[in-house]
Design a protein that fits this description.
Blueprint (H helix, E strand, L loop, with lengths): L2 E5 L1 H9 L6 H10 L3 E5 L1 H11 L8 H14 L1 E2 L15 H10 L4 E4 L12 E2 L1 H10 L1
Parallel strand pairs: 1-2, 1-4, 2-3, 4-5
Helix pairs in contact: 1-2, 2-6
């Protein structure tokens, strides 16, 4: 099954901070790097990835950040979403939601650790839920 995923920044941060290879966030990022999950992103999203992952408080190396972002860009699909007019609890999440709406089909998900920041939709899932979906198919 081909799976497309708009990946919220918090999933990447959580994966890079994890010391365990079997966490759902690490597994999602591993599947992006291996090409099993096709990331869907916009220029606004990659700008946020770079800014957040570069924060000193996380201590991620420049090489790690570049490796991850190059995988997103290499395997991913760049989308220029249309404005949706939707109001979210945290409007910083809007670029992620608009990208998933632009690319929306049965195999496209928005993967987030902050599920409550988005409308309750079957395509808005946690990393664990996405991993379970992938294992079912």
């Amino acid at each position: 099954m081909i799976c497309y995923a708009v990946i919220d920044t918090n999933v990447l941060v959580s994966a890079l901070l994890s010391s365990k290879d079997d966490t759902a966030t690490v597994q999602v990022v591993s599947k992006v790097i291996s090409g099993e999950i096709i990331p869907v992103y916009s220029n606004v999203i990659t700008k946020e990835y770079r800014e957040v992952l570069s924060r000193k408080k996380f201590g991620f190396s420049g090489n790690t950040i570049e490796y991850l972002l190059s995988a997103v860009e290499k395997y991913g699909i760049l989308v220029d979403p249309s404005p949706s007019g939707i109001i979210l609890p945290d409007m910083k999440d809007l670029p992620f939601y608009e990208v998933v709406l632009e690319k929306r089909d049965d195999n496209t998900y928005l993967v987030t650790g902050n599920i409550k920041h988005f409308p309750k939709e079957p395509f808005v899932v946690t990393p664990r839920e996405l991993f379970d979906i992938l294992n079912e198919n």
